[in-house]
Structure formats: C-alpha cells, structure tokens
Amino acid sequence: MSSIAVIDYGMGNLHSVAKALEHVQPGVEVLVTADPQQVRNADRVLLPGVGAIRDCMAEIRRLGVDVEVAEAIASGKPFLGICVGFQALMDFSEENGGVDCLSEFSGKVKFFGNDLKDPSGQDLKVPHMGWNQVKQAIDHPLWQGIDDLSRFYFVHSYYVKLAEQSLVAGTCDYGLPFDVALAHKNVFAVQFHPEKSQQAGLQLLQNFLNWDGSL
Amino acid sequence: MGLAKRIIPCLDVENGRVVKGVKFLDIRDAGDPVEIAQRYEQQGADEITFLDITASHEGRETTVHTVERMASEVFIPLTVGGGIRTCEDIRRMLNAGADKVSINTAAVFNPEFVQQAAERFGSQCIVVAIDAKKVSLPGETDRWEIFTHGGRKPTGFDAVEWAKKMVELGAGEILLTSMDQDGMKSGFDLGVTRAISEAVKVPVIASGGVGNLDHLVDGVLQGKADAVLAASIFHFNEYTIPEAKRYMQARGIEVRL
After folding, report:
1. What's the pLDDT tens digit per position in B1-16?
2. Which long-range contacts (CB under 8 A, 24 or more apart) does B32-40 make?
3. Where are the domains of chain A?
4. How far is CA B178 from the centre of its chain?
5. Which architecture, in CATH terms, is A3-210?
6. Computed over its alpha carbons, how large is the radius of gyration of chain B?
C-alpha cells in the first residue's frame, strides 16, 4: 500500500485533507508530518496550507519544510500543493506587505483588490469564498473523470499569476481571470480545496493517489 | 460563469443529537447529525452549519466527537457555532475537522477575541454571528441593534456599525440572523441584510425566517446576501435543496447544481 506525507508545519486544519485521502483510498498510509525522513520515504507528498502567508513561510523555513519541498519536487515523486501550499511555490506574495516564497515556480501571488466588480458592475466580496467553476487548461491525469467547468470550493483573498502560460493547468474567473492550477512534470498545485469540494474534489484526490507523476 | 450563491442547511445539535426535529422522508435515524449532514451533502448543500446548543461540559466532549465523525464523512465546508469563547475552543473545533467557527456572544463581550482569533487562525475560518433586531419605530429611519442571549438582551450597538467593526477586527464572514424574523417563516429581514452586505467587503450569510423558496431568492436579489441559511424548510422536507437551487437558478441566481 502506498504512503503519502501531508506536510505539517503547524498551520491550519490538516485533518480534513487526511480524512479525505483515507476516504477515497481506504488503507492508504497518510502521514501528517514535518519529519524530513518520513517525507523523503513517502511515495507522494502533499503541501497544504491555510492562513496568512507570512506565518506560513516563517514556519516552512523554521522547520526546514522548504528543503523537504525542494527535494520532493526534484525527486520526481507526485507532489500536490493546495491553497497556500500552491501560493508558497511562487516567487513572491503581496500578502502581509510582501513575502518572499519558495521560488519553485516563477509567478506572483496578488491581492484581489478592493474594487472588484462582476460583469454587471456589482461589487464582489473578498475573500473569494464558495464554489466557482474551474476551466481546465490542459489534459492532465489529475483532471481525469472531472468535467470541465466543474465547481470547486475556494476561500482566499490572494490569487496566483503564473509567469509561464505553459504551466497553467486551470483557470477561474472572479472579477478577473486568474490561475487556479499548475502542472509541471510531477507537480500539480491548486488554489481550491479538493478536500472540501465534494465529488469533484474527491475525484482529484483519488487521481493524485493513482498518479505516478508522469504525464 | 462565476461564484455560486450558497445554500447552507443548519443543524441545531445538543449532546450529539439534532434537536428541533428533522423529518426526512427516508432517513432511519432522524437525530444523528452526521447522517443528516451526509444526506444534505448528497442533495447538494454547499456547506453545513452545526450549531451546538449543548450546555454541559461533558456534552462539549460529545460535540467534539460529533464534529470529528462529520469531518470524516462529509466533504463540504463545515462551520461550528455555539459556545465558542476562547482560542482553545477554536483550536479544538478546527482540529476536530471544522473549517470555520462562528463566534457570537463572545464577540460582543470581548471584541478583541475576534482579532486574536483571526490573527491566530486566519480570517478565512472566523465567522462572526450577529443577531439583529429592528429598534427604529415606524416612520423613523430603519435602525437595527445587536442582541444577545437568543435575542433577549439588547446591547445598544448598531448592527451595521458592529458588522463593520467585526470585519475590521478580522471576521472573514458575517452570519446575520434577524431576531424579528427567526422562526416566523415570513422571510429574511431584507433591510438589515442589504444594509450590512453593502457595508462590508466580506461575504454575508442571511439567516432567520425562511418559509418558502421565494424568501431564499429575495435574500440574494434584494438582501444582496452571498449565502442563505435555512433549517426547518429542509429538515421537514418541505423543499429539497435541489428544488431550492433550481428555483433560484430560474430567477437568474448562479448556483451549484
């Protein structure tokens, strides 16, 4: 039976993602851990995250999770980033007055802004909270069995803008178009919460557990 | 294409059992909150709100276990409210699997608690519940005040100003209950819903008074609510969630079907 390390750097609720993984693949070994050896030995690695980026990055660096993430990505094993775990892979975030991130991929994390409007001119709320449609930009093993434009659950005030269009695996629209999924070799990362997105989200997690990291 | 307006069924739970009665047509144990939440999830509920009305300390342990069980079976966002007074209460609920907590009375007596909670856990999981009651007399400009203790105790705080203050302190969402309308089945108080929704940047959930599907539509279109919460119309199978969503969609509201 395969194992998955859910990297625990003390931020937010890891119970949900662990339970969702166990639900879609009973018997999978889910290790909620920051221990480098356990992360190194796991077949798959998941970097979750909720909360403010400054605190997240501080803990990521203090616990050496930055090194674990870099190693996992370089190793070729399947790697999934969720929410702040997606944002943390970028170069830089505007949140908390500006925070340097892991620079695993080239891109910025930007604020939605205070004057966001929908097409009819109505003010849009921030955070972007609730179920929005995800447009799949590419074919990918993680989108398998999930209809294009399926709705996923989001909760965030900052969004990712990838520097390279070729890495964009999915987009969404909330007053402006933005990138909600990244795919590159063995790495997939999403802004939404698959563990809270009912059928579509559980399917994505199932796909991740079945994925060998190749395209 | 855009963000869907959310429908949120609310369960009142005491000592691990749903109270106020739930009568799904084909459910075996009407009192088990996990079974009921699963049913709502399958019907397409966008979130579940779990209101803990347990008074005793021992009962609180039961609540934590119920939240744990629910989080293992239900994969949509889960908000837990009722009796959240300290950061330790929040930590326990989040660790048990709640995605958000709803703070009500504690925010009124100690607004800094909202700030502490938001700083420690992030605004995305801090919902502030506001119980508002109209205090203006007929002919006067509409004015609503915050009440505590199930609507019995006035606080003297203006509801709209209070909502703005809560958001400044870090609330990520407002759960607005109209105490005049709650249980009346005559619709939300659209005036206070709209006033607060337009005054704050964060999402507002309208609650209190839903008796039919037009009330849900009005809450969104006139009240400008981002989400609508209801209990009895769903518990007693008067309407199903898919019916409610199709009805809202037919009136131009974006929903998740």
Report:
1. 689 999 999 998 988 8
2. B33/B66, B33/B70, B34/B66, B34/B69, B34/B70, B34/B73, B34/B74, B36/B11, B37/B11, B37/B70, B37/B73, B37/B74, B37/B78, B38/B73, B38/B74, B40/B9, B40/B234, B40/B241
3. 3-210
4. 11
5. 3-Layer(aba) Sandwich (3.40)
6. 17
Q: What is the pTM of this model?
A: 0.95
- Find the CB nearest A130 among B46, B72, B97: B46
The alpha carbon of A83 is separated from its chain's Cα centroid by a whole number of angstroms, namely 4
Whether the CB-CB separation of A127 and B203 falls below 8 Å is answered with yes
Q: Which residues of A touch B69 (CB under 8 A)?
A: none
What band does B39 get if pLDDT is binned at 50, 70 and 90? Answer: very high
Q: Evaluate whether A196 touches B99 at the Cβ level (below 8 Å).
A: yes
**If you search the block for the tokens 């001119």, which residue do you land on?**
A121
Task: Enumerate the residues of chain B whose CB falls inside 8 A of the CB of residue A202.
Answer: 75
Token readout for B36 is: 């009921």
CB atoms within 10 A of CB B75: 25
Q: What is the DSSP string of A172-214?
A: EESSSEEEEEEEETTEEEESS-GGGSHHHHHHHHHHHHH--S-
**Which tokens is A127 given?**
């955070």
Tokens linked to B25: 């047509």
Q: Tell me: pLDDT of A1 over 80.
A: no
DSSP designation for A87: H
Long-range contact pairs involving B149-153 (C-beta distance under 8 Å, separation at least 24): B149/B105, B151/B179, B151/B182
Note whether B24 and B39 are within 8 A (CB).
yes
Q: Phi then psi for B176, rounded to 5 degrees? A: -105, 115
- Determine the distance in angstroms separating the CA of B138 from the nearest CA of chain A, rounded to an integer: 31
The verdict on ipTM greater than 0.90 is yes
CA distance B121 to chain A (A): 6
